[in-house]
Amino acid sequence: MSVKLAHSTRKKILHEKERIDLACAFRWTARMNMHEATANHLSLAVNQDGTKFLINPKKHFSRINASDLLMLDVNNPPDMNDPLSPDVTAWGLHGSIHRNCPHARCVMHAHPIYSTVLASLEDSNMPPIDQNTATFYKRYVIDENYGGLALEEEGERCSALLSDPDMKVMIMGNHGVLVIGSDVADTFNRLYYFERAAETYIKALWTHKPLKTLSDAIAEKTAVELENYPDSSMIFFDELKAILDEEEPSYRL
After folding, report:
1. Class for domain 3-252, per CATH?
2. What is the mean pLDDT of residues 182-205?
3. What is the DSSP letter of 85?
4. What is the dihedral of CA 167, 111, 15, 63, to 10 degrees?
5. Domain segments of the chain as ranges
């Protein structure tokens, strides 16, 4: 039986669309080389108050299917001795954010190269030097107090930095990047464009020439226009799913 036929005939599973979308995001995070071995995590709240969420098991992003995703509850800590338990840092960081930041419906934490280089600079601010960098103008927070692995204490500290719903990117100093959003498409779009913006900025620094920075007014205008650009993140994500449907349809299983 083909993967597509199996998908069409199997019994519908709970939160199937959410699982498929998140599995797609894992596959593309790997395809775009934004993954790191079996580390890093993407999660998605599935109930109204955000206390129940899907997250990846200890498995390479390129192999994650919809049915692999774990369902966790912020009010019911998992047994970390269970071989099917999530990674301890997955619970520490994502559990804390879903517990304390209900506006963070989807949370993606990764160590992509250019975002991590940015996070490793003495000044991790990203000036608006092009359209992509302007997207994030005054829309990120910088964590200046890295405290080690994202266990629960570190997760609680990080979640406090995301209390403002307008701050949808956290540049995790000496660590990586974390983005939040309303759904998988919105959040993956933000992760993708932040890494692109960081790459542009870091490579501009490599030239050792003066940067041509946009004015505050134009940077803010651009950011607002992009925020209101119709359906851009969904169109992008639907295309990513369409490519996987042709090339790696097993992500839906």
Report:
1. alpha beta
2. 98
3. S
4. 170
5. 3-252
